[in-house]
From TrEMBL:
Domain of life where this protein originates: Bacteria
The keyword Ribosomal protein belongs to this UniProt entry's keyword annotation: no
Protein name per the record: Phytanoyl-CoA dioxygenase family protein
Key words of the record: Dioxygenase, Oxidoreductase
Cofactor(s) this protein requires: Fe(2+)
Organism: Sphingomonas colocasiae
Single GO MF annotation: dioxygenase activity
InterPro entries for this protein: Phytyl_CoA_dOase-like (IPR008775)
């Protein structure tokens, strides 16, 4: 699947692209069934919320279930990403950010690049975050908030927050969030299940807790150019995979094809 020139320019201007209902209900059902399988496992790659036992994030997914091994090579995600970067990409991370009804906690203001750079020594902010909504995401169940166009500010002032949630995060200093807010509109990213979203490594974003009675799960993979790979391996493999094999897209119907028993 190729993006039009107009959509490429929109990405360059706003720093993100929403692709409404890119995946069918049947495809989302396959991914959700795989998600249920991995959430049921009692493994360290399922990270739980700080204040409850509920899964916050399930990581390393393409190594844990065949469906996710296909999702990370899905042409509707990978071809636009390759087009935007113009080079080979590897799977840096493959996860689901859950945000369960009532229990899902916040994501503080951050740029993904801060973590990629400080923790893994990624040289440039070229990674792309590719999402598929596995539930309808509305204004109440903890949507992502984006400062539209904030990528143009480059890498902002950051500090390592190890206390607010169960996932240590390099977050953005308040003075820089204020500075960006004077120039960029804030947008909440909502859409039906099956909607895809692409955003870059310097997008200033966060999301509020989910106090609604509706779950909000989002599949998220980070795809990074092979030429911009990690230079440090301090973090575990599921936080930044070391396998730099270029992603080669599968056929468009790969999620609906029979999986060999
Ligand atoms: O799932 C969310 O609400 C935010 C996740 C996020 O910001 C991230 O993975 O970088």
């Amino acid at each position: 699947m190729k993006l039009s020139q107009e959509r490429i320019e929109e990405f360059q201007q706003n720093g993100f692209l929403i692709l409404p209902e890119l995946f069918s209900a049947e495809e989302v059902a396959q991914i959700r069934a795989a998600a249920d399988r991995v959430f049921a496992q009692d493994v360290p790659t399922n990270i739980r919320e700080k204040k409850s036992d509920v899964v916050r994030m399930a990581t390393g997914l393409h190594l844990r279930d065949e469906i996710f091994a296909r999702v990370v090579r899905h042409p509707r995600l990978i071809e636009p990403a390759q087009q935007l970067r113009g080079e080979d990409l590897y799977v840096q991370q493959a996860k689901i950010n859950v945000k369960a009804a009532f229990d899902g906690e916040q994501w503080q203001w951050h740029q993904d690049f801060s973590t990629h750079h400080h923790e893994d020594g990624v040289p440039e902010p070229l990674a792309l975050n590719l999402h598929i909504f596995l539930d309808d995401v509305n204004e109440f169940n903890g949507p992502l908030y984006f400062f539209k166009g904030s990528q143009k500010f480059g890498h902002l002032g950051t500090w390592h927050d190890t206390v607010s949630t169960s996932w240590p995060l390099w977050v953005i200093e308040e003075k820089d969030v204020r500075r960006v807010s004077e120039n960029c509109d804030l947008q909440s990213i909502t859409g039906k299940a099956g909607t895809a979203l692409i955003f870059g490594d310097c997008m200033l974003h966060g999301s509020p807790p989910n106090m609604s009675p509706w779950n909000r799960s989002i599949f998220s993979m980070i795809a990074n150019p092979v030429t911009n790979a990690l230079t440090k391996t301090d973090r575990a493999d599921h936080q930044h995979h070391r396998d730099l094999t270029p992603i080669r897209p599968l056929a468009d119907n790969c999620l609906l094809d029979q999986i060999a028993a």
